[in-house]
Every structure is written in structure tokens, then in C-alpha cells.
Write a structure and sequence with these properties.
Length: 228
Amino acid sequence: MTMKPDNDIPEREAKVVQLLQAAARSERAPASVRAELGVIRARAGARRGLRLPQPSLRRPVLRYTGLAATALTAAVVALVVTLGGGAASPSIAQAASLALRGPAAPAPAADPSAPASLLTARVGDLHFPNWQRAGGWRSVGERTDRLANRTVLTVYYASGRRRLAYSIVSTPTLAGLRTGGQPYESLLEHGRTVVVWEVRGHTCVLSAAGISAPSLWQLASLTVGSSD
């Protein structure tokens, strides 16, 4: 799944402004529609710091049918939801897909405070594990991405010819995480097995090709909750 880049936001904000200006030009739009547009205007401005236009009754009057007014309201609501993060909220699938981009920086070193179990890479107080002693999984690179309003740090590991990626997403926990009472959720994304779990508000995503979900979780569970 591909997210729209942040540079799309100004264009969508402009569309909100245009729609609100169109609504403001009508004295004959139903009162309920005008009231709803006022609420939307306030919410959109609060969420994005926008100074949206106030209605002016001096402009030419446009005739609105009930259907047109309803359609206009729906369009503005949809755009405001998108701007506010409703439709564009990051998903687990989006977080998992970031690992496919590959390393962009050298591998993190072992943490001096606990070199046998932790790496220096971390998100908040949650460290990445040193899995060198767990099947020979050594860190081979890392990358940092932004997913909506969250930071995602991914560390790549290798053991022989096998590769896996472990991403930690900054708080709060991504919506849609459903473990069903189990310690983790598993899914398939882009031909890779993905296991997802939560630690203190962080979403943790471990993925690999050709490795089963139970095997991934067995590795992950060795250091779940590692921190300062």
C-alpha cells in the first residue's frame, strides 16, 4: 500500500477552501448545511492551522438544490477527514511495506550498556535487540522513515542467506492491530510473513520471506520489551 506524499496536503487544503468559498456565496443553501459547513470550517482550521474564508452575503447568490447541498457537504467532510488524518491514518500494512525499501544507513552497533542483548538503535525507550547469539542474526543496516506523524526505524538482520527486517513505530500504537488475545498478529504482505505486536504504545513489525510466523515470534519474544 502506498501513502500519498505530504506535498499533496496543500492541494487538498486548497480544495477545502474552494468548497467553503462556494458554500459561502449562497444565501439559499439550507440552514442546516450552512451550520454544518461552519463546524467543518472550524475543525479544518484547528487541525491544519488554516485561516479559512468567512461567508460573505454580498457575493452572487447561487441556487442550491437539496441534492447539490448534500453533495457539497459530503465533499467537504471527505476532504476534512483526509486532512485531519482519518482516511490517511497509517496502517500496519504501510508500516510493513517500509522494510522493502532496504537499508539506507550502516548497521547499528551493540549498545555498550548491554552489548550481548541490545543495539544502540532505538525508538523512544525501546531498543532494538542484538540477535547475534540467537541463530547468528547480525544487524546489517538500518533506515528511518516518516509514516504520517510517526517515526519508523527499521533494522535489517542477516543469518547466512536469510534476511529479516524489524521495524519499530513510534507511539501511539497503529490502529487496526488485532491480536485476538494472542501475543502477536500475523499477516502476509508482498510475499513476506509479518508478525506485529505492541510494546508500551510502540508498534513492532518483524517481517521476512520464507520464515514462518511462529519462528519469527520465537525470535522476537527473546527480547520483547527491551529498554533502558
